[in-house]
Amino acid sequence: MKIRQVELTDVERKALDHGYKHGKTASYRKRCHIILLKSDGRIAKDIAQITDTNIQSVYNWLNRYDAEGIQGLQTKAGQGRPRAIALQKAKEGVKYSNRAIKGDYYAQRPKRVFCQTQ
């Protein structure tokens, strides 16, 4: 059985370490941690237990890192379900600014758009 190895340069290791310690989201920090643990020679089963995920997720993030580098560990735009209020108001013809849809508390006031039916 061949164990997959991840070789990191000093620059890559520093970037991943910075992402692990100072990343904006917990998911990004976890993904950086996965790559760092694998580069230290850990097996996927141990990494999955340490990061509280499953083995297949470990391999998925390793593949993404190999293909796209550290940028591949970021969550891509459009992932996840849109907020319920944005969906409801879109049906009513009310448009929100991008800040409101992304969850900015201070931008929750809708911009009213009157749709004319023909």
How is this structure best described in words?
With 118 residues, the protein is mainly α. The chain folds into 2 domains: 10-73; 81-118, no CATH class. Helix content is 53%, strand content 3%. The protein contains 6 helices and 2 strands; from the N terminus they run αααααβαβ. Helix 1 (10-22) runs antiparallel to helix 2, helix 2 packs antiparallel against helix 3 and helix 3 (44-51) crosses helix 4 (55-68). The longest helix has 14 residues, at 26-39. The model has no long low-confidence stretch (mean pLDDT 81).
Furnish the topology, listing elements before pairings:
Blueprint: H1 10-22, H2 26-39, H3 44-51, H4 55-68, H5 84-92, E1 94-95, H6 98-102, E2 111-112
Helix pairs in contact: 1-2, 2-3, 2-4, 3-4
Distance between the amino and carboxyl termini? 68 Å
Q: Characterize the quaternary organization of these chains.
A: single chain
Helix content: 40-55%
Average pLDDT confidence is 81
Largest sheet: 2 strands, antiparallel
Q: Poorly predicted ranges (pLDDT <50, ≥5 residues)?
A: none
Walk across the major sheet and give the strand order.
1-2
Total E-strand runs: 2
Order of H and E elements = HHHHHEHE
Shape descriptor reads elongated
The number of helical segments is 6
Instruction: Tell me the Rg in angstroms.
Output: 20 Å
- Count of domains: 2
Estimated structural class: mainly alpha
